[in-house]
Amino acid sequence: MTPTPLLLLHHSGGSAQIFHALIDALPASVTPLAWELPGRGRRWREPVVTTVEEAVDDLVRHTAEFTRDFAVLGHSLGAYLGLALAARLDEEPGGVRCTTLFASANAAPCTAVLPYPRSPLLASDDEIFEVARQAGGGIDARIREHPMLGPWTADLLRADFSLTDTFLRRHRAAVTHADLVTLCGTEDIFPPDRLTAWSSSTTGRHELLTYPGGHFYLEQQGQQLATAIAARISPVRR
Hints:
The chain has a six-stranded parallel β-sheet with strand order 2-1-3-4-5-6, with helices on both faces. The protein is built from eight helices and six strands; from the N terminus they run βαβαβαβαααβαβα. By secondary structure, it is of the alpha/beta class. Helix 3 (77-90) packs across helix 6 and helix 4 (125-134) crosses helix 6 (149-170). The chain has helices at residues 20-25, 52-63, 77-90, 125-134, 141-144, 149-170, 192-196, 222-232, and strands at residues 4-9, 30-35, 70-75, 98-104, 179-185, 206-211. Helix 3 links the parallel strand 3 (70-75) and strand 4.
């Protein structure tokens, strides 16, 4: 049996580093593949993307190399990118597709509220950092106040918030045929109804799993999360 690929999509302002604990804990039946948005991590030299369509185009090019169906775990912003990718691949018969989507630490698209009345690309650095704080991912004061790191971090967040903004404005009604598992920390900001509403984003099965911790619960719950993922995706047999 061939291990199932698991595509990992990170949060706003972040990188694939958030998944280290999970990657270390995954069994041999699952092959983790950490993708990073242009402009961060190993892709730090590339220009950032600011629309969900650009991000999904990049993901489609990435998954075109896959020879079998796969699963996706998207954390925060990554949950929306994962849904957009899965829905796009569902529309392209004959190619690989996402069979299980793990949507982590974000509200169901149908319940999400836009943080800005206009594009985040027009927001000030202070406005960007305040939205990050309200979302549970506040930026350390030493970074915010640094003359170089502060503006650079704000620019990354601004681009990533624009991805969420364009997704919610144009694709919040996206539906995938993949089974969908919602994951969240018990101390995160999302009430249960905004998590169970992810069921409207799939024609397949839906399940909600919670773990001790806040927005970045997966850094402390790598083993438990790996066990849950492995139990819900099986090795590809084709």
